[in-house]
Amino acid sequence: MNSIKKYLFGLAIGVLSTGAFVACSDDMPEESYYTFTGEMLSDYLNNRPEFSDFAYIVTRAGKMDLLSTYGRYTCFAPTNDAVQEYLQQHNISSIQQLSAEDCDTIAGTALIEYIYGTTDFDGVNFLGKTNMLGRNLSVEPLPVVENGDTVNTTYRINRSGVIIMSLANDSVENGIVHPVEHMVVASNLTLPTIMREDPNISIFNTCLQLTGLDQQMIRIEDMSYDPEYWRRGPLKEGLRFSGAQQDYCHVPETRRFGYTAFAVPDSILNNYAAITQADPYTPTYNKNINTWEDLYDYACTIYPDGAGAEYYDKAHVSDSRNPLYKLIAYHLLNRKGLYEKLFTYVSIYTGDIFPTEWYNTMAPLSTVKVEMVNGRYASSNTFIGNAELGNMYLNRHYDPNNPSTEQRGAIVTPTVAEGLTQVAINGIYYYIDRLIDFGANTQQTVFNERMRMDLYTFWPEMMNNDLRSDDCSDNGADISSPDSRSPCYVFPNDYFEEISLDDGEFLYQNVRCTYWSYEGDEFNLRSQTNSFDMTFKLPTVPDGDYQIRLGFAPMNPRAVAQIYLDGVPQGIPLDMRSEGDGLKNRLGWKNFGDGDAWRRNTEEWQQNKKDLHNQGWYHGPGGVRCGQYSKGWDVSSSCGSFVGNDCHTMRRVLYQGHLSDKYEHTMRIRSVYAAGQAHLMIDYLEIVPKSVYGIEGDGKGEDDF
């Protein structure tokens, strides 16, 4: 059957029925409409003898009835030959010898509650939606060779199941089927275990074990977490709407843990002197690294503080103050960072800025910068600087006004060596081509810039439990329904390890391209009892003077709250109730037009910025848009609008003063007014060093992006 037409038609129905604003869309061509046949995914498997073994497995797993109902499913269905191959590899004589748990694992790995056609696999390393086991599957393009010539491209799913392209994209009433000639499998091993199987990173693995950091990456899931308890009791039905938008808020289904490792291969370390000396943007190191002891010596050059102390030697590398421990731990995150989940294009205008995030690492009091440099949408080469287009970087720094401070950082390779498992049950690892650190040079360069931090990145639970949509394709879903496809969430009080919620409800509104929100999503504090009180940790930045700003959208349903830093109240309470126009008039906010006209460096524009800054306010960032998403912003596109031109997208200075890097800082948000379920929006924070916000006179001040 002509399956891809049905697939496209189903997507068209979801968009056209919403009435939501979708800019720059074309009407669905007439030839894309498809007449449904009534065959369900369950019928597809049961009616075709070549999938009888998989049909048995799905039935034994108790999932066949589910596949007979309406929904949206992608199925990587193994042929009988693929199932028999799997059985032989595991010394199993027949499918009847598989346990119910085995069948559940096999079926759950192959099924996703979302429709993916093969056109969705182009340029993707990992599928954004998880399978029925809560895993994200990897995607690799493979050439189809006949008689020595490449005649087509197919895809390998999770480094195991290869799609039979002649049978791919076969539609059924409730989904799409991609037959595979090898079974799609997933590892049940923890991250340190699969890394030990990789001979290319033997030095890094040795250091993981010597420091004991491998034992800090073994948690998988909090089995005591019971979402039904929260649904029945404390977070009962009446509490699960997010306010003015009336988005239905789900309780998260799981509370999983996860980890990411950025490992430098031995081949890089063994030639480190030559590599760094040849790169003007990488600090030079004059020795090659062939053993863990050599890596310890390197770590001592990065972290010299503490030399001579008891913990500062090769016998105490498991001490968190030891230089080797700090170096290795800095390459680790306590979240499962799938490649496309480490950043997002939503709302980012890549003609002016690149998608950039900042994450806490597993090293004490440290943060790493993650930046995706996508040159397809860059407006000019001068913006690219020292980057190679299309790469993800760790700790890259580029300032065209201070070229001597440029730092290349490390490139993240999306995959690992052929034949190896990259994704564990609780994490993922990557190769990077340089060592990274939180030493003095990094702090003086990489962190000497405005750090715009989406609140989503603060809490690992969001990423570990796949709680943010990967794009805006779910725009227009019925988000007021329990069956909403891109759900919002309400969190139990102790769901986040680094949040203390003493009163009220903490809510998450998922990605919508039309929201006045950075990266399309936002968090809200709200209360049935007109009171909320939350405290959370801030990311660590180098010792120095900073501004901390909060980005949010002022609206009348909002609340009023007192902000505290380290327990000390900061200024007068923050009032979010003012509509944009009222706030604009009160502050003297001005709109300088769209596009290039808005970015003109006019005297009037500069004066208006100063007037706002003197009152503790900033326009919204000029490098951010709302209104559309297409995996990056095409500079020539007229879609969307700059949030800097919208008085609903302001930034407020919450704190100006000193931040120490010797201890964790906390921010507390306590309600002053929250009547009628008024909610306080916390979207993103900017932590801005004085060297950026404090330039006076003829110096080039902070940019508007």
Describe this structure in words.
There is one protein chain. By secondary structure, the chain is an alpha+beta fold. Helix content is 20%, strand content 21%. The protein is built from 19 helices and 33 strands. Strands 9, 10, 11, 12, 13, 14, 15 and 16 form an eight-stranded mixed β-sheet that branches. Strands 19, 22, 24, 25, 26 and 31 form a six-stranded antiparallel β-sheet that branches. It has a five-stranded mixed β-sheet with strand order 8-18-20-21-32, with no helix packed on it. Helix 3 packs across helix 5, helix 7 (202-211) crosses helix 12 and helix 11 (292-302) crosses helix 12. 46% of the residues are buried.
Give me some keywords for this one.
single chain, 705 residues, alpha+beta, eight-stranded mixed sheet, six-stranded antiparallel sheet, 33 strands, 20% helix
Can you tell me the residue ranges where pLDDT is under 50 for at least 5 consecutive residues? 1-36, 376-383, 594-598, 632-639
Question: Could you give the distance between the termini?
Answer: 49 Å
The share of residues in helices is: 10-25%
Strand content: 15-25%
Write down the Rg.
Answer: 26 Å
The biggest beta sheet is recorded as: 8 strands, mixed
Count of helix runs: 19
Overall body shape: globular
Backbone structural class: alpha+beta
Number of strands: 33
Give the overall pLDDT as a whole number: 85
